[in-house]
Amino acid sequence: LNKARDAVTVYHRESRLLELQFDERQSQALHEHFVSRGIAVRYNQDVRDIFPRTLFDGVVVSTGFAPRVELARDAGLATAKGIVVNAYLRTEDPAIYAVGDVAEISGRLYPFVSPIRSQALWLAAHLARRNDAPWTPPAFRPAVKIHGFSLAPSIVDTL
Residue 31 above 60 pLDDT? Predict the structure, then answer.
């Protein structure tokens, strides 16, 4: 839309762009890319609060994912963005583990195939007592396709 010279405002739920994929420097680089093209970015926004008070010529809604943690919360487990686990993918209940895009490790979610597969394989080995080292995320680079945007090599290395 911006390329077609339409006015664009991005209303984002979180405090920075692509918070699951990017670290803070990378999010800032994307923010600067948008601003340099005249795209306004509004953070900490709930789209349900925007519509009653704002008139738009058109709206495009793009939703991301949010882990469903209700069952874990109802069971008394710690939750934040996801189900809080330690480096061994264990919740505060020693009999319960969580893996995948719902497992939050040190404040971070890993909603990508490569780390989810790695978690599953690691946990199987751990439960079989073949591995007692903590899980570490594999090296991976999610593809982010945004017109005219690419991360500088010095920023890519932080992924």
Answer: yes
